[in-house]
Design a protein that fits this description.
By secondary structure, this protein is of the alpha+beta class. It has 19 helices and 14 strands. Among the domains are: 145 residues, no CATH class; 45 residues, no CATH class; 71 residues, no CATH class. The strands form three sheets. Strands 3, 4, 5, 6, 7, 8 and 9 form a seven-stranded mixed sheet that branches. Strands 10-11-12-13-14 form a five-stranded antiparallel sheet, with no helix packed on it. This is Transposase.
Length: 478
C-alpha cells in the first residue's frame, strides 16, 4: 500500500502526524494528554489550590523521569526533592488569597530556586530557562515552568519567611541528613560589590552643589525624590566622616552613592581596586554547612554577636570551639565568646603585608606579678601614671621609663624624646590571655583547620554561584 501511495500525500501525512505528536494540532482522543496538562492540589493549611505539577506526559512516559535520572547517576535532584518534602509550607501558603487563579506551589518554586542556585544559576532568566530544559530541575519542580517575573515576585513576597523560619528549618534538615553538629564552628567574611554604580559616587561638596541646583529648579516629583536621597546621603556621609576623624584620619574625601547610601567604598578582593560594597559573614560547621549568616556595610567583627545568636536559635546551644582569622582579634569578639564560654581560636595578625614603622604593642610582654612591660630589647617599662575614664573615653594605665636613649633599637621603637610609652586598657588582660592560649602547639594545630572548613564556602559562592556582585540595592535586600 505504501508503494502505491502518492509521495506528496505521504509527505503531507507525515507532517500531519508530526504536528499531532508535538501538540501543534489538537487531537480529539481523550486518551492523549496534551503537553500543558496541569494537576491542582488543595493546601493542607488553606482552602486555596496550587499548581502541583504540569507537563505530566514528560514526567510519566514509557521510562519515567525518576528512573532515567537514577540510571544516569543523578543525586542532587533527589536530595533537593527529599529535603523540600520535609519542610512545612504553611507560612508560604497563608500569604495567598483563597480566590483567583491557582498560583504555583511554593514547594515547586523553591525547588527551582534551590536546585538552580546549586547549579550556579543566579539570574531569574537563567532559572526560567533551567526550569524548562534541565531534567533534574523538571523533576524537582514537578515540571512547573514559571517565568522570571513570577520567580522574582515569589522571592520578594516571601523574603521574610525565606530568611527567617524557612532558613532555620532547611538548615536543620541538612544537618540531620549530613549527621553533623555545631560543636566546632569556623567563621569568615568577604567583600562583595554592591549593585549601585561606582561612577555615581559623590563627596559632601558635590552633594551640596547638586542639591542647590535641584532646589533652584522647578519642583517635580522626580526632583523632590532626588533631593530626599541627597539629604539622607549627606547625613550618612557626615557620620562616616566624624568616625574617620575620631581615628585621626582625613574624612573630607569620603564618597557615597545616593541611590544606595548603605554601601561603603572599600577595597575589593582579588586585586579589583575599590568600589561600593558590603561584607557578608558566615559561620559554618566542619561539614561546611552554613549555620548563621548576615551582611554588614563594612564590619566583620560587629556582627559576631548576631551570628552566635542565630546559631543558638537554630541548634539550642553554643559551639565548644570557634575558629577565626586574625581579623577577628578584637575586644568585642573576645568578650562575646567569653560571655558564652566558647573556646576562641584566633591568632593576632603577625604577618602584615606592609611592616609597621615602629614595634607594635603586641611585642611588649606584660608581667602581672611585677605590673610592668618588657620591650623587645629586654628593657623594663614600669607603671608611670593612671588615667581615669570618662563618658567618652576609657580609663588606662601608662607604662614607661625604659632607657630608650642609648637603645640600639630606638629607631624601630619610638621617636619620642621621653622614650616609648605603653597604654594598658582593661580589655588588654583578655587579649594577653588569648595570646598565651594561641601560643601552644595544640591551639595552632586546631586553628590550622579553619581555612579548609570555611574558605571553600566562599569559593563555592563566588566560583559556582557567581556571587561577585549583589543584584539588588539596599542592605535589607542583600
Amino acid at each position: 500500500i505504501m508503494k502505491k501511495t502518492n509521495p506528496v500525500l505521504l509527505r503531507v501525512s507525515q507532517k500531519l502526524m508530526l504536528s499531532i505528536k508535538i501538540g501543534v494540532l489538537p487531537v480529539k482522543r481523550r486518551s492523549f494528554m496534551t503537553l500543558f496538562t496541569r494537576t491542582l492540589e488543595s493546601s493542607a493549611h488553606t482552602k486555596h489550590q496550587f499548581v502541583k505539577a504540569q507537563h505530566l506526559p514528560v514526567l510519566a512516559g514509557s521510562l519515567s523521569l525518576c528512573d532515567y535520572l537514577r540510571q544516569m547517576g543523578e543525586r542532587s535532584a533527589f536530595i533537593v526533592a527529599e529535603v523540600l518534602d520535609e519542610q512545612d509550607w504553611g507560612p508560604f501558603e497563608h500569604c495567598y488569597a483563597s480566590t483567583g487563579r491557582a498560583p504555583y506551589s511554593p514547594r515547586s518554586m523553591m525547588g527551582i530556586l534551590l536546585y538552580g542556585i546549586m547549579k550556579g544559576h543566579c539570574s531569574l532568566r537563567a532559572l526560567e530557562h533551567l526550569a524548562r530544559l534541565d531534567l533534574g530541575c523538571i523533576f524537582v519542580s514537578y515540571g512547573v515552568t514559571p517565568d522570571h517575573a513570577s520567580l522574582g515576585r515569589f522571592i520578594y513576597q516571601h523574603q521574610a519567611v525565606l530568611t527567617g523560619t524557612f532558613f532555620k528549618e532547611l538548615t536543620l534538615s541538612v544537618l540531620r541528613r549530613s549527621q553533623s553538629g555545631i560543636s566546632c564552628l569556623a567563621g569568615d567574611g568577604t567583600v562583595i560589590e554592591a549593585a549601585c554604580s561606582y561612577y555615581h559616587l559623590l563627596t559632601q561638596e558635590a552633594i551640596s552643589r547638586e542639591k542647590s541646583a535641584l532646589t533652584a529648579a522647578p519642583a517635580t516629583a522626580r526632583t523632590e525624590k532626588r533631593i530626599k536621597q541627597l539629604e539622607q546621603s549627606a547625613e550618612v556621609l557626615r557620620r562616616r566622616q566624624e568616625n574617620r576623624e575620631k581615628k585621626g584620619k582625613d574624612g573630607s574625601q569620603l564618597r557615597i552613592n545616593p541611590t544606595e547610601p548603605e554601601a561603603v567604598v572599600q577595597k575589593l578582593k582579588r586585586g579589583k581596586g575599590f568600589s561600593t560594597a558590603y561584607k557578608p559573614s558566615v559561620l559554618v560547621n566542619t561539614r561546611r554547612i552554613i549555620v548563621a549568616q548576615t551582611v554588614d556595610p563594612s564590619s566583620e567583627t560587629q556582627v559576631m554577636a548576631d551570628l552566635l545568636t542565630q546559631n543558638f536559635n537554630l541548634s539550642g546551644y553554643h559551639p565548644d570551639k570557634l575558629l577565626l582569622d586574625a581579623g577577628y582579634f578584637h575586644d568585642a569578639v573576645i568578650a562575646e565568646t567569653q560571655k558564652y564560654q566558647i573556646r576562641l581560636f584566633c591568632s593576632e595578625n603577625s604577618h602584615r603585608q606592609t611592616p609597621r614603622k615602629i614595634y607594635p604593642k603586641s611585642l611588649f610582654i606584660y608581667d602581672g606579678e611585677q605590673n610592668s612591660y618588657t620591650c623587645p630589647a629586654r628593657h623594663q617599662l614600669s607603671l608611670k601614671s593612671t588615667v581615669a575614664g570618662s563618658e567618652k573615653t576609657r580609663g588606662y594605665r601608662v607604662y614607661g621609663g625604659a632607657n630608650c636613649v642609648q637603645c640600639r633599637q630606638k629607631n624601630q621603637c619610638t621617636q619620642a624624646k621621653g622614650g616609648r610609652k605603653i597604654k594598658r586598657y582593661p580589655e588588654d588582660e583578655k587579649r594577653d590571655e588569648l595570646r598565651l592560649h594561641m601560643a601552644t602547639p595544640e591551639s595552632k594545630q586546631i586553628l590550622s583547620q579553619r581555612k579548609s572548613i570555611v574558605e571553600p564556602v566562599f569559593s563555592a559562592l563566588r566560583g559556582i554561584q557567581g556571587l561577585e556582585r549583589f543584584r539588588r540595592k539596599g542592605l535589607s535586600a542583600v
